[in-house]
Give the backbone structure.
Amino acid sequence: MPENSSLENLLTETRSFPPSPEFAAQANAQAGMYDEARADRLAFWAKQANELLTWKTPFTQTLDWSDAPVARWFADGTLNAAYNAVDRHVEAGRGDRVAIHFEGEPGDTRTVTYADLQREVSRAANAIAALGVESGDRVVIYLPMLVESVVAMLACARLGAPHSVVFGGFSADALRSRIADAEAKLVITADGGYRRGAPSALKPAVDEALEPRDGEAPTTVEHVLVVKRTGQDTAWTEGRDIWWDDALESADVRHEPVWVEAEHPLYILHTSGTTGKPKGILHTTGGYLTQAAFTHKNVFDLKAETDVYWCTADIGWVTGHSYVVYGPLINGATQLIYEGTPDTPHRGRWWELVEKYKVSILYTAPTAIRTCMKWGEDIPAKFDLSSLRVLGSVGEPINPEAWMWYRRVIGGDKAPIVDTWWQTETGAIMISPLPGVTATKPGSAQVPLPGIVADVVDDEAHSVPNGGGGYLVLSEPWPSMLRGIWGDLERYKDTYWSRFPGIYFAGDGAKKDDDGDIWLLGRVDDVMNVSGHRLSTTEIESALVSHEIVAEAAVVGAADETTGQAVVAFVILRGEHADRAATEDGSTEVQTALRNHVAKEIGPIAKPRRILVVPELPKTRSGKIMRRLLRDVAENRTVGDATTLADSSVMDLISAGLAGPA
Ligand code: ATP
Ligand code: MG
């Protein structure tokens, strides 16, 4: 281990997949972009902003960093996000192009062209303005995945009214606190949406969230706009609640966008809450749109005339903001939006959709890929996936074995995979291979994009040498960076800028391999200290997942008298192995096999002290493993705040199983 490294480097991955000459020949991304951006980073971003966006007033200033860590990009330019996403495509004669293929969970479909979108967004903007919403007012959006969700976001942007989207799966309490945090004037919701084959109500959570409570300030919400999706019975507050259709029906189809300054707030969005209380991240307009468009075009190699793009993320997450709404629409893409769950009515639904719409670019999360692996590759094998030409991954480190499966089973061994590292805070992709340029490596996000400066540093902020591990940092401001935490500048400075003065601390561990490529190693909060060795979660989990009987794994450090901390692993086994492990002999066998496997793959120091076979792992609603809850279990503590958990019964299931005979 190199002397000044602050994280152990355990796993060596030697597989590499160079781009095919055919792909490289047609790729949007070019190797020369790195040099161009290195030569003059600000000129590079100014060029992207001018080429990818239409400005009402051109900017003359690229970056103002005088008030660091709050950046101002393209500050004297003016523009409108919705105009850029919709109107200008229609004005350029592309109004007939399909913007959205919508597929509801029950199988209903809708095709929306850019011209349709322009009419809908304009009418919605007029309707929202008629309710008294003005530039700068905040609007909370609490909707399922519908065309109206995209329309609602763009209508707000058209008015200069920042939206705060709250994931439709969140509870009334989570919604209430986000409404209060934003001091929203309007809430846009639906009667319900389709989930796992049945209508699931949404409006009752809004009613509950807006109810007066003793000792709390009265809500700032004046109106609730309600999209009719399921037609289920819906309680109604006269004077406050208005049907979306009624409001839009009488609204004019023409609307003059509100031209805003580049630094005008576009939205507030709360982080996933994997590590604790969610933070209300603030994004502004010009820089954010520039980087969302640039990355969408180059990281996914988008050809707007021919590609059918599908990002499976919900609009409740940042991925849905940058890569369902803003990036693709700014670039004039044709995309698929699917309302429901991947296993309704059957486990092949996603692949059926890929076949039906001839999806050519797919962007999803490792948790979804691991779930499909668990279900078995015979399911995707039933469908024609040959239209796929680029595959993306985001949200967590992707284990090399899951990457290989994704490439082989979904990508037909030819589609390049882009493992994209970024955060709600970064607004857009920061570290990723460029398809057609980068030789990809299973499990690594590899290289900062052109115009992005990232590094891995040790405790003293020194760059670690190749082969070393430490903290991921971003050393220079970037266009789509957050402009703060809503209403809490101190927390912003404290969370991201105090660990290493002057550089952005991402909160993730990382290492550099011998080529200098970056590998994400999981949260810094989750790093374990075993006999003085600092071990990250990702590599041990990847070693476990590379054993044929393991479907998913999560490791944590639990206090240990002799070693400081000991590695404790929670594993989900594939199919029949789970039954076998439930017997006493079987359990011992599994423990021994997996401990030996980890020792062989990455070394004895990483060998789990305990391995617990569990039926499920605790995950956030965006699909990320919440290790802090497992640490509570491993250390026999009461389980901490689990409000962002997708399924709160999972922790009971895990605790009950552990108390039992297994
Ligand atoms: P909170 O900040 O509230 O704990 P969160 O960090 O899960 O929540 P997001 O902004 O949705 O909220 O997630 C960003 C994080 O997801 C990154 O910091 C990183 O830990 C992880 N991540 C995202 N993409 C990747 C990737 N490609 N490889 C590894 N990790 C990733
Ligand atoms: Mg985070």
Remarks:
- DSSP finds 21 helices and 30 strands in the chain.
- The two ends are 37 Å apart (CA to CA).
